Amino acid sequence: MNTLKRIDPRRPFTITADGLKRITLGVVGAAGSMETATHGAGASHREQAKPRRTTAAPQRVILVAAHADRGALDDHARQTLAGAALIADAATEVVLLVFGEFNGDAAALGADKLIELPMFDRRNFAPLDELNALAACVAAYAPVHIFLPDNATGDGDLGRRYAAAANASVAAHVVEIDAAHVASYVQANTAFASRALPEVVLLAPNAVDAKLPFVGAGERVMWRFDGEPASQQQGHGTARDLGIEEIDAAQLALEEADFIVSAGNGVSDVPAFERLAVTLGAAIGASRVAVDDGKFTRDKQIGATGKTVEASVYIAFGISGAVQHLQGIKDCRHVIAVNLDASAPIAKRANLTVIADAQETIAALNEAAAAARTARGTGAALLNSTAVAEGALA
Ligand SMILES: Cc1cc2nc3c(=O)[nH]c(=O)nc-3n(C[C@H](O)[C@H](O)[C@H](O)COP(=O)(O)OP(=O)(O)OC[C@H]3O[C@@H](n4cnc5c(N)ncnc54)[C@H](O)[C@@H]3O)c2cc1C
Question: Which one of 45, 163, 230, 381 is at 20 to 30 Å from 298 when CA atoms are compared?
């Protein structure tokens, strides 16, 4: 039987900063798109002085709604916002509605207006309140389209609820989009369905390149949502927030871990390193050399021939940052490197590099944790979230 995989003739394209339709598989031959695909030096050069997308008087609005995560939008939300900005014409304003606190640069992400709703938090389940807020914002701005990232962490659910409540046309899992149409895989990915741009667009990840050649106006709007909390409305007590169940980081698949400490050839005291991981509530990763040495099991290997991870915080102890390793951490948000060598390649990727001995740093962190536990009089982990580690970068 011939098992060679065929090119899918209906594979979707990706909207890029240049408005190019880049075929996502088999990039070779997509004339003109290689620079964007490889994020070459030219792209970063262009970022120096970006023009405003439009200065014309707005006549229409595209609304983009997304939850923030610790003050920032994740890649998927940025792509969704970029998608709206790329298809908006000169007379269309892109309004960003953020559920939760937002400290990012809305203009750089392509938004012309920013509405922040800090009273909402991704960690609290309040679907009806969020629906009411979105509906109120729609009533105020009368957008022609509403874009949301189609994720499982609140936005996808909110978009579906809104479309059902407003009886709006909707397309979910959108993998291809331009100003005229959207397309999604349907029937267990065996068919490709296309339609005119609906009122609600739920965008799949990576359908749009979030890098933009322009900026938005980024004006912060003091729009207030004064809706009565749904929990206090009659007949709306259908949803109850049971909170988030914290689980041991060691039980998480590395690909899902939000906080990873990783050991390389420069880590010799493995038990101390493992103690630190438990203290921090972080999952354990390793470089290939550390795995080949038998210090860690193969499932801990991160990199081209290991796992690809997307942690918010990735601490690399004694890892040089070989290209194969960096490939596995390209989607991590903050990288902290601890290395004796300031010129190690990991330092170029890291947001913060500590030039120090890995063993000494690990021992100092373990000691600090023990001291803090004693001071607090609790056996609880000192740093059980990524927030503190991220704070170090602030
Ligand atoms: C086809 C192929 C696939 C590969 N796939 C992967 C992969 O999936 N994942 C992967 O990780 N690698 C992979 N590699 C290997 C990769 O090229 C590197 O060899 C490897 O990542 C190096 O691991 P390391 O950084 O831990 O070790 P080293 O290269 O030995 O670097 C150790 C680092 O620790 C620092 N250091 C030393 N002592 C200390 C100390 N006491 N305190 C602090 N810092 C210290 C050093 O300055 C150095 O930067 C692959 C290679 C090939 C050819």
Answer: 381
